[in-house]
């Protein structure tokens, strides 16, 4: 049972259309190559798919440009040649015109060359400037708000550090006071040792305080039970 004829019309399904294109393109290229080899024909085939993809075939050893040029010679048609210098001059003229327009627009935005502007254009320019000023102010306020937020964040951080430091001082107050008292007592103790260093003693006679130093400084030759006797005056002495 043979296959039925396929209606030659556009395939609506994109997937089916792409599959059919791939199969028939391969068959067309095969038939073109066979015709070129069997009949010694110069063939140039150019195919563009629906997606814009290029597919071409050219009989070897020729190039596609040679095939196209031969076709133009045979048909007597020529591709019009444009003077590149004229095209460059035209592009420069367009650029100069656009530059002058932009310069004039910039001068108008700065308040210059307003004498030749009609009322409607001045009104439009005023609205544009007001809109620009509002945008600038909004951006300025946004930056100021960001700076204020940063300052508030730093203030909270400093307050938190201050609270932590105050809490630490309260927790270690006793230790700090003890350390301060020890530092204040240290100079007095050093002075005590300096006083004792001026009086050399031997063995167990080394005093432990200034009071003991004063007691030990009394000469041992004077017995505590010795009493002083007053001398009787000689009344016969002429000097008395």
UniProtKB/TrEMBL annotation:
Limits of the MADS-box domain: 1-61
Subcellular location: Nucleus
InterPro entries linked to this entry: MADS-box/MEF2_TF (IPR050142), MEF2-like_N (IPR033896), TF_Kbox (IPR002487), TF_MADSbox (IPR002100), TF_MADSbox_sf (IPR036879)
GO term, biological process aspect, one: regulation of transcription by RNA polymerase II
Keywords assigned: Coiled coil, DNA-binding, Nucleus, Transcription, Transcription regulation
Organism: Citrus sinensis (Sweet orange)
Location (main, coarse): nucleus
Identification of the protein by name: Uncharacterized protein
């Amino acid at each position: 049972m043979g296959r039925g004829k396929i209606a030659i019309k556009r395939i609506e399904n994109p997937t089916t259309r792409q599959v059919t294109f791939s199969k028939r393109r391969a068959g067309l290229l095969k038939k073109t190559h066979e015709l070129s080899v069997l009949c010694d024909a110069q063939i140039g085939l150019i195919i563009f798919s629906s997606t814009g993809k290029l597919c071409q075939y050219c009989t070897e050893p020729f190039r596609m440009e040679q095939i196209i040029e031969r076709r133009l010679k045979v048909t007597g048609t020529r591709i019009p040649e444009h003077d590149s210098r004229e095209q460059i001059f035209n592009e420069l003229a367009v650029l100069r015109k656009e530059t002058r327009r932009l310069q004039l627009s910039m001068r108008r935005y700065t308040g210059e060359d307003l004498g030749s502007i009609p009322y409607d254009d001045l009104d439009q320019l005023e609205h544009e400037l007001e809109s620009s000023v509002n945008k600038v102010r909004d951006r300025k306020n946004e930056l100021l708000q960001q700076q204020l937020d940063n300052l508030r964040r730093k203030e909270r951080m400093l307050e938190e550090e201050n609270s932590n430091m105050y809490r630490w001082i309260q927790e270690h107050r006793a230790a700090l006071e003890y350390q301060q008292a020890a530092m204040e007592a240290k100079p007095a103790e050093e002075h005590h040792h300096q006083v004792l260093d001026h009086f050399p003693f031997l063995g167990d006679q080394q005093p432990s305080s200034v009071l003991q130093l004063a007691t030990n400084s009394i000469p041992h030759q004077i017995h505590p039970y010795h009493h002083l006797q007053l001398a009787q005056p000689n009344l016969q002495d002429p000097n008395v």
